[in-house]
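Fig. S4 source data, part A: sequence.
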Amino acid sequence: MKITENSVVSILYKLSNDAGTILDQSTEDNPLIYLHGQGNIVIGLENALTGKTIGDTLDITVTPDEGYGNREDYMVETVNRSMFEGLDEISIGKQFHAEGNTGPVVVTVTKIEGDEITIDGNHPLAGENLNFAIEVLAIREATEDELTHGHIHGPGCQH
C-alpha cells in the first residue's frame, strides 16, 4: 500500500535544523501517526511522503515556504504589561494564546524590559529549514469516523 490522501500513516522521524541540532524526534514506542492529506503535518513533509510505502526511509529538507513560513517582522510587537492582567508570572519563553488579525495565534515572550514586553507571533521554527530523517512504519486506510473528524482516532482520542 502506498501513502495517498486519507491514509493513516505511522512514521519514525528525527527533525534537525541546518546546524545539525536535533529539535524533535519520535521513538519506536511512540511513532508519529497522522491522517495524510488533511494538513496534520507540514505540507513539505506531507508532499515528500506521498507515494511512499512501508519500509521506505528518506531524508527530506523542508524549506520555510513548505514548513512554518518565513519570519515576519510584523508579528513581533512590544506591548505593555497591562495586556497580561491577571497573570502572575510572565517570563521569557512563556507562550500565550492571543487574538491576531486573522484569528487565534500563539505568541512567545521574547524580551521583558520593565513594563514593556516583546511578544513574537511567528512559529518558533519560522524561517528555518526542517531536516527530517524518516522511516515509514505502517499505512492503513482511514475509518469513516477519522475522515469525518479530519484526524486519526486511537488511544487518548476524546471522541
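Fig. S4 source data, part B ends here. The chain has a mean pLDDT of 92.
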